[in-house]
Amino acid sequence: MKSKFVSLVLSLVSALLLSNCKVDPKIKPVIETDNVAEIIPEGWPQPYYTFSTNPVSEAGFILGRALFYETLLSKDNTISCGTCHQLNSAFANTDHKLSHGINDLLGTRNTPGLFNLTWHTSFMHDGGINHIENQPPAPITNTVEMGEDLNTVVKKLQESEKYRNLFKNAFGDELINTQRIFKAITQFQGLIYSYNSKYDNYKAGKAQFSEAESRGYALFLAKCNACHKEPLFSDFQFRSNGLPVDPSLNDIGRAMIENQPENYYKFKTPSLRNIAKTGPYMHDGRYSTLQQCLNHYTNGITNLTNLDPLLINGIQMTDSEKADIIEFLFTLTDYKLLSDQRFADPNFQ
Predict the structure, then answer these.
(1) Topology of domain 198-333, per CATH?
(2) What residue segments make up the domains of the chain, in order of their start?
(3) Which pTM was predicted?
(4) Coil vs helix vs strand at 194
(5) Buried b vs exposed e over 305-337: b needs ≥16 C-beta within 10 Å?
(6) Under a CB-based contact definition with an 8 Å cutoff, are residues 305 and 265 in contact?
(7) Quick one: 34 exposed, middle or buried, by C-beta within 10 A (0-12, 13-18, 19+)?
(8) Most-buried pick from 113, 185, 213, 308 (CB within 10 A)?
(9) 109 in helix, strand or coil?
(10) Phi, psi (5° rounding) for residue 330?
(11) Rounded to an integer, what distance in angstroms lies between the CA atom of residue 60 and that of residue 56?
């Protein structure tokens, strides 16, 4: 009898201990947004787009972030801007050579990174969009990306109490229209700045380059800086770099926007900031490594139609020089941006 009593007591104690050892519920971290503001880093040129007609606010940024990660913007409610543009890849996509959209449809171009967009004079690989506020409708309505009608997008958002409240917070009332949608997304995308890399700290006298990085920087200035100009590491011009045409895509580049002979096979010069994190590379994602990219410029140029004059003789680089240039390119990674939770998906915080 005594043993049964002891056993019962032990069982009760065990149950009590277990009841007090439950895993605490996950506490969602607060994403700080009260420091969102337009930034022009020291020594940088004035941005092409300012927020003079789209004043930055915490509520506007929060709405823009919600819309950026909102799958309701797609036809089947499965794809958001953030599906293809991922924070840990500097808002590029390392999973696919070409963009993937609704119904697993394939696009024809690689997903570019998104940062420092207010300095861009045009958008998309062919520059088909000439204003940052006019950029969001392109992927939303593209039939192989998000494939949705803008009127339907507005209707979906109007039916959501969450978005009625977010629009009221941002604009003062619950009116939801395309102009407000695009302005809010612009506040989010336009504030994605990348200026905290090792390179930036080196230029500010706060970091030192290794010998290889120093050699690579000197080589970069001599061989690459004509197109990939500091500090943005692009001139945002349209150039043909002599890539052989992929017959399965037959992408004619800028000529799709302005069908003139001089525009064939020209694409916008991409920024090299965060380049170590934004592969695969080129407009069609054909190269998976930086080594392959540099090899193209030494011995891969075959398409001579509208070839940029700077590339007539290719770019002469030895293997060791390529290795040093790659070491320098690694210094352009902005790890602060890649982990900045202000720009993370609020649905998974």
Answers:
(1) Cytochrome Bc1 Complex; Chain D, domain 2 (1.10.760)
(2) 58-193, 198-333
(3) 0.89
(4) coil
(5) ebbbeebeeebebeeebbebbbbbbbbbbbeeb
(6) yes
(7) exposed
(8) 185
(9) coil
(10) -60, -25
(11) 7
Is-contact 328 177, C-beta < 8 A? no
As a whole number of angstroms, the distance between CA 301 and CA 322 comes to 17
**Structural contact between residues 313 and 126, judged by C-beta atoms closer than 8 angstroms:** no
- Asked whether the beta carbons of 345 and 82 are under 8 A apart, the reply is yes
Token pair of 225, please?
Answer: 């800086």
Identify the pLDDT of residue 349: 66
Taking only the tens place, the pLDDT of each residue in 221-245 is 999 999 999 999 999 999 999 999 9
Instruction: Return the number of other C-beta atoms located less than 10 Å from residue 346's C-beta.
Output: 17
CATH 1.10.760.10 corresponds to the domain 58-193: yes
- Tell the residue number behind the tokens 């006019």, with chain if given: 134
What distance in Å separates the CA atoms of residue 174 and residue 188, rounded to the nearest whole number? 19
For residue 21, is pLDDT > 70?
A: no
First to last CA, the chain: 54
